[in-house]
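Quick one: Vacuolar protein 8-like isoform X1 from Populus alba x Populus x berolinensis, structure tokens please.
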Amino acid sequence: MCSLRQAIEVISSLISYSHPIKVFSVKWQLIRNKLEELCSSLTALENCDSIQNPILSGMISAIVASASDCYDLARRCVDLSYNGKLLMQSDLDVMVAKFERHVKNLFGICTTGILTQGFAIVVSRPGVNACKDDMRFYIRDLLTRMKIGDLEMKRQALLNLYDVVVEDDKYVKILVEVGDIVNILVSLLDSVELEIQQEAAKVVSVISGFDSYKSVLIGAGIIGPLIRVLESGSEISKEGAARSLQKLTENSENAWSVSAYGGVTALLKICTSVDSRTALVCPACGILRNLVGVDEIKSFMIEEGAVPALIKLARSKDEAVQLSSIEFLQNIASVDDSVRQLVAREGGIRALVRVFDPKSACSSESREMALRAIENLCFSSTVYIIMLMNYGFMDQLLFFLRNGDVSVQELALKAVFRLCGKSEETKKAMGDAGFMSELVKFVDAKSFEVREMAAVALSSLVSVPKNRKRFVQDDRNVGFLLQLLDQEEANSGSKKLLISILLSLTSCNSGRKKIASSGYLKNIEKLAEAEVSDAKRLVRKLSTNRFRSILNVIWHS
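--- reply ---
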């Protein structure tokens, strides 16, 4: 009776012998794949006592007998001494089927409990600089344990597999190359043993992070099992499944599969459950966000109550949940006015304003996200802008323009810049709130982009007569602008912006008088002579009968 060691040697020898064969190469590659699976499985069983396990001993004998028959076929292919191609093709197909049967039988007898942790040798993990063959052998050994080991062996194999794929990307590539391991992982997601399921979900989550291998997972039918885990798995399993689905749905082609397996309903259930943890809710929101690009799925989400559910999450005290839900709301309503109306009706705009509120305990990142969402959802409609004003948004925006962190302050300035291009009523409200005196300060900023936004916004606000009068009432405002204009280091771009604001102020009598009597008129005249844009127009506006004759020399020369 053959020992395990003899069987392994016979199969290894047969694999080596078959490599030089030039004919029927596809068939022989299939045979080698099956032989490698057998070899890996038998190696893992090497210290299992075949005398104490007669069923296993009989299996080993059958495998060796099949290997002997295969040797004969290999010899004839090497010598080209076979009788007819069709007959040899048929014989090789039979051999592939035999080895496939041996693999399945070996799996079957070992899952009945013949193989346990006590019987199996432990293959050491390869070192840091191990060659690919050693890494491949280790992965094959883990595959064998996942296929034919008892519960504890499967669990330990999955733990070891997770460790190597997290620490070294090369193992992920080898894992995908080794036949059957992805299929085994997919099947383990449906395991009734929660420990096995959650460890498999963790490994799949790592693999799904590689764009090159997402198609392999999809091809193995991963979507259905992942959705089933979301529906009935443990919390840890659900978190792993959600992370995987979030990565896989970055490709919109996979959106329909998620929907077809009931994924949208499962995800919304997670988002509305008070028991769901942050680590699960955030990727669930991310998956839903990835799916809204498909109109039919978006409509279904809305029918199932996604908008009020995610608005509720936006009120959460958990920063990560806040960010994920606000990003979803922004995506689902970005190009759809009917959804924006729904967000407004369900209290979404008020919720965003509360997140942005300086009195709230929200982080800077949450405030920035809320402000971006407010811009995208509200700034295109006068109705929503009025709603924002009623909620106190203008005061909040002014606060962060004065006191915000650099990142929030910059976003606030951009929001102000956009709002200044809206209705006359909006501009009046901003003038009344005190935005103009703050914008003046930004006109002297180091960044040209900031100076430009502030100047354009200020120019837009002072185009409103009421705002012009308010602005020039404070002598410091006009004086500061003229002082900046007089600075030698001010570049031509800054001067053009300043002149544009001053030009707007000349539409007001008091503004025109303050500029004309300020002592900076000669500087403005020099700019006009230098052909600086709009400087001549400014001088014309400032001209009076008293000095018009002096200026005629400039204009008619």
